[in-house]
C-alpha cells in the first residue's frame, strides 16, 4: 500500500438527534482517485464538510499525509493541501475568473499587485493541467462546465494536493462529464489525490481506483473498483438486492392524449425559455424529455400543467383545446384529465408544514367528496390518505405526521400517491426520483410503467439520463428551449443523446 | 443669469454634502450585504453629538470626532443585531432611526432646555468657509475664474472631505484587496467562507466605515451647514442618500452624481424663477408643497425604472449562516 493522503478515524457527527456520521473511518491512498458512494442522506457530504472544516466532528481524528491535523475552518483545510469543488459552485458570478481565483489569497492593500502575480501563476496552471479558461471572462457568462474548471483551478492555485469533488457531474452533459473525468485522470497522473463523491454507480466504475460505500451515516465497505461491480455496489448502498434495470414490455401506443403545438414561453425577466415546442404523447406510451437542467424543461412543464399561463401556442388534452385565450390554470388541466407530479416536491408538491393527511388532498380539496355542509369530511380525507399510504408503502405510516418529517423518498411517494390515484388519462411527472433513495426509485419507476401499461399517457421530464433511457418509449431532447431531436428508446444510445443535450444536431446518418 | 447659475451650483454643492457622505457609507454596508436604512439615524445622531461636543469643547474637530463615534456605535449595534444575531436587517435599521429621533431630542432638552435645540456655536466651534489660494486673483479670468471663486472655493473643510471620499470609496471598493472581499461577501458569502475569509468580520469592517461616514454626514449639518442642532434635523436626508445610492447602482461616482442631482432640485426649489415657471402648471395654492415634494417625486420616478434595473448585491439582507 502506498502512502496515505487522508486517514479518517472513527469520525462521528450528530445534528441534534440525527446521526449524520457514525464511527466513520476512511483511508485514501496518495495518487489515486477514490470514490465515495452512497444514497442521498447517507452522510457523504457531511463527511467531506468535516474534512474541509465546514463542520467540526464530535469525535474522531483526521490525518493528512500521515500527520494528524486539526481542521477548524476552510483556511486550515487549504493550508494542509485540501481543495474542494462544491456541488453548488462557490464562485462570485459578477467577478472575473482571475478575481475569483485570487479571492482570499490577496496580499497587500492594493489589489493590483496580487492580480498581476496571480495572473502568471494561473496561466501556468491552465497550461500544466490543460484547463484552459479565459481568465478575464466574467463567471456568469461561462457555461457550467467551464465554471467547474474555475473551481478546480481555484483549488490548484491554493496548492491543493488532495481534491474533493462533491457530485460534480450533476450539471454536466455526458460529454462534459467524460471531459471532467479526463481532467481527473490527468490530475492523478500529476500525483494529485482525488476524492469523488457521487451517487452514480456509472461514475464510480468509470474513473475510480478504490471505492468506499456509505449507508445511513456509516461506512459499510471499502473495495477496489476493479474487483467489484454495479450490482454489488448498489446492494451495499441500499442494504438489500435491487433491480437496476426496469423490466417493461414493448409499448402499445394508442390515440394522442396530449398534443402540444408551437408552444413558446418567455419568463418575467424577458428570457425566451421555450421556443416553438411541438410534440404528442399517446395513450400507452412514456415520452421522456431529456436535457441538462435549465434548458427550458421547467418552464415547459409549468406551461403545460397550467402553472404559468399559456403565452403562445396550443395544448390539447383529449378533445379539449387550450389556447392563450382560454386562460386555463392548473385546476382546469386537472379537470381535463391531467395529473402533475411537480419537479420540486417541497416547493410545489407539498405544503411541508401540513400533515400527510392534509397533503393527500391538496389540489383536490374542493372536491365534493371531501366537503360537507360546513366542514370538511374528515373520514373521507382519512381514508384517501390511508389508502394512498398503504398502496405506496409510505413510511412511517402516520397520517398526522408533518410532511417535512418524512424522508425525501417518502415525501415523493406521498405526492405520487395523491396524483396517480386520481385515475388520470395523462400523467406529467418532473424529476420523479430527485433526492429519492434507490429503493423508492425502483418503486416509483414500476408505478410509472404500470400507469403506461394501463393505457395512460405519461410525459416524463428528468435530468437523469439513465432514468430517461430506462423508462421512456420515445425521447425528446431539449437544449436552450428547443427540442433538438427525437430518438426511439429502443435504438437510443447515451452518446447521441449527449450530443443533442449539448445542442449539437446529428448528421443525417 | 450667469450669477444666478453660479449661486445655484454653489448651493447644490453645499446641500449635497450630507448625501455624499451618507451614500458612500451606504455603499460600504450594502456592498458587503448588509442593508442600511439606518443612515438617517446615524446622520441625526451625528448631528446632535457633533453640535453638543463642539459646544462643550469649543472645537469643531472634537465635535466631528464625537459624531464619528456615535456613527460607529450605531453601526455596531446594527451589526450585532443583523450579523452576529442574524436578525432582520430592516427592523434593526428602523429601530436605530427611531431611537436616534427620540434620544437626540430628550438629551438636548435635558442638557440645554431649548426645546430640542442645542446652543448656537461660536465661530471657533464650527467649520467655517475656507478660501482656496488665489481665489481672488483668478476671479478676473472669465468663466473659469468665476467657477473657481464661487463654486469651488469658499466651502468648509467638510465639503472637500466629502468629495474626496468619492474617489477614496471607489478605490477601496474596486481596487483594493479589502474591496474585492467586500464585494464578494455581498454577492456570495459562502464562496468567501470557503476561501477561508470570515464573512462576518468583513461585514463588521464594512459597517465600521459605514458608521464613520454616517456620523460625518451629521456633523456637517450641525457644525458646518448650520451652527446648532435642531430636532429632526436630518429630515429624511438619510433616505435620500439611500435613494441616491440605489439610483447610482451601488457605485460611488454615479451615486455622487445622483446626490448632486437631488441637491440641485433642493437648491432651485425656492428660486422665484422656478416659482413663476411652474405657476401656470400647478395651482398656486399647492405650489409650495409641490416644490418641497419635487426631490422626493424625482427619486420615485428614478427608482421606478428611469435608470434601468438596479441590481442589488445578491446576498443583500441575508444574514450569513453555514447551516442555510
Chain oligomer state: heterodimer
Helix content of chain A: 25-40%
Q: Briefly, what CATH class of chain B?
A: Mainly Alpha
- Write down the Rg of chain A: 25 Å
Which architecture name of the largest domain in chain A does CATH use? 3-Layer(aba) Sandwich
The computed structural class of chain B is: mainly alpha
The biggest beta sheet of chain B reads: 2 strands, antiparallel
Main sheet strand line-up of chain B: 1-2
Give the rounded overall mean pLDDT of chain A.
89
CATH class of the largest domain in chain A: Alpha Beta
Number of helices of chain A: 17
Regions with little confidence, pLDDT below 50 for 5+ residues of chain A? none
Shape of chain B: globular
Describe the global form of chain A.
globular
Task: Report what the structure shows.
- The complex is a heterodimer of chains A (509) and B (324).
- In chain A, the strands form four sheets. Chain A has a six-stranded mixed beta sheet, with helices on both faces.
- With 509 residues, chain A is α/β, with parallel strands linked by helices.
- Chain A has helices at residues 44-51, 74-79, 97-102, 111-128, 144-157, 174-189, 201-207, 230-238, 297-304, 330-335, 345-349, 356-359, 378-391, 408-420, 438-453, 465-471, 494-501; strands at residues 4-15, 18-29, 33-38, 59-64, 67-69, 82-85, 162-166, 193-198, 210-215, 218-224, 256-266, 272-282, 286-290, 312-317, 320-322, 338-341, 426-430, 457-461, 474-479, 482-488.
- In chain A, α13 (378-391) crosses α14 and α14 (408-420) runs parallel beside α15.
- Chain A has three domains: 4-238, 3-Layer(aba) Sandwich (Rossmann fold); 243-337 and 425-509, 3-Layer(aba) Sandwich (Rossmann fold); 353-423, no CATH class.
- By secondary structure, chain B is mainly α.
- In chain B, α2 crosses α10.
- Chain B has a single domain, classed as ABC transporter involved in vitamin B12 uptake, BtuC, CATH 1.10.3470.
- Chain B has a two-stranded antiparallel ribbon with strand order 1-2.
- Chain B has 14 helices and two strands.
- Classes of the chains: A alpha/beta (509), B mainly alpha (324).
- At the A-B interface, α2, α3 and α4 of A face α8 and α9 of B.
